[in-house]
Write a structure and sequence with these properties.
By secondary structure, this protein is mostly beta strands. The chain contains two helices and 14 strands. Strand 5 and strand 6 form a beta hairpin. It is globular.
């Protein structure tokens, strides 16, 4: 049933490829791969992600991400339409325990399944939940995809985001500018110091709350800021609060562009 429903979603009419404002679709960002990292005290926060067109579904996006802070680690795999609307997502996390969750984004609701390993290490389904979309809204995205969908500019941008069981209305607001120090040559730009536009990310929980507040971006929570380099367009820094570390700035250490920088 899961595979059949996913096939229906992928085959439903929708524009493929780089799109324009008339379709409401977003082209792939300039980056194909990003690596963020920050070390504080004896702990390291690290996020690695890659985004490309899915091989099995022409036009759909596929993202792979790994986030780690101290001894906690998670791996996320997802597919989405070019407007950011999720089709399917799988998350594996390990720390004090190991668990796996998967979501299927249907036409009218979200199906979320939780799996845990049995004594032999095989994954067993332990719960299945149905999550209704907010009234008048049937498209939701993932927090990590915000780095691909948001662009610095003069207008506020609002998207609906699904975390685990909760749904959030996320608004990105221009928050001034800053000078960010990065690795020289990052994004094809020689300069080490980059002028960057800041976006403030604010997440409002959409009622009813199904779980405790859990919105994060690359594992960071609290007051969130994303800095976009004016020269390359890359998200060069994400600021927020990391577990066991406190307020940190995850700085972009490495990036692979989709095409050579002009």
């Amino acid at each position: 049933m899961t595979r059949l429903l996913l096939a229906v979603l992928l085959l439903a009419p929708w524009p493929a490829g780089a799109a324009d404002s008339s379709t409401g679709q977003s082209p792939l960002p300039a980056w194909r791969y990003l690596l963020f990292e920050e070390k504080a005290f004896l702990a390291t926060a690290r996020s690695e992600l890659s985004l490309d067109i899915c091989e099995e579904a022409s036009g759909a996006w596929c993202l792979e991400a790994t986030n780690s802070v101290a001894n906690n680690r998670e791996r996320i795999s997802l597919s989405a339409r070019p407007d950011g609307h999720l089709l399917q997502r799988d998350r594996f996390s390990e720390g004090s325990s190991r668990r796996r969750k998967q979501w299927l984004y249907g036409l009218n609701s979200i199906t979320r399944e939780r799996l845990e390993p049995d004594a032999s290490g095989e994954w067993q389904l332990t719960s299945r939940r149905k999550i209704d979309y907010p009234e008048g809204q049937r498209q939701v995205t993932d927090p990590i995809l915000l780095l691909a969908l948001l662009t610095p500019g003069g207008a506020n941008q609002t998207l609906v985001v699904n975390t685990d069981l909760n749904l959030y209305r996320v608004t990105a607001t221009p928050a001034g500018e800053d000078l960010i120090e990065v690795e020289p040559g990052l994004g094809g730009v020689a300069s080490r110091h980059r002028d960057a536009d800041l976006l403030r990310i604010e997440a409002e929980l959409i009622q009813p709350a199904r779980d405790k507040p859990d919105f994060t971006l690359l594992g960071l929570s609290g007051e969130l800021l994303v800095a976009f380099d004016r020269a390359s367009g890359l998200p060069v820094q994400v600021r927020g609060r990391a577990p066991r570390i406190g307020y940190v700035a995850l700085t972009l250490k490495s990036a692979e562009l989709r095409e050579p920088a002009r």
